[in-house]
Amino acid sequence: MELLQHELKNASYQLEKNEAYMNARQLAHFKQLLLSMKESILDHASDTKVHLQSDTSKLADIADRASQEEEFSLTLRSRDRERKLIYKIDAALERIVTGDFGYCEKCGVDIGIKRLEARPTAELCIDCKEIEEKKEKTRL
User: Fold this and answer.
1) Who wins on pLDDT, 80 or 127?
2) Domain residue extents for the chain
3) Is 107 labelled as part of a ligand binding site?
4) Is 5 annotated as a binding residue?
5) Average pLDDT of 45-74?
């Protein structure tokens, strides 16, 4: 995942003066960014599959076995988060196809290039996201 973060930082979009929001060049940039994220996650997942297939029963020491089991558990939780991220990536790619990418799903305003660079799967503008987070806090 560190490599993924490095790739995202090096792939920032260079906005040109008076450039229209969510033009073809921007959409192509974000599509490529999302596809790269997905590919990186899938590559990492296949490495994990090989790692998880190692046999813990071969470890003689019960403490070593328990330690490896805990590591496997943490790895599986991480993969679950990545699985959810792939779902969000696929949803963002679908929004590119439908023409909804880059616009807030609640209020319809521009999400903004900087926010999309930081979180390409964003569905809400920063204002709507803050309101949603405040509502969640009051429910807890």
Assistant:
1) 127
2) 2-139
3) yes
4) no
5) 70
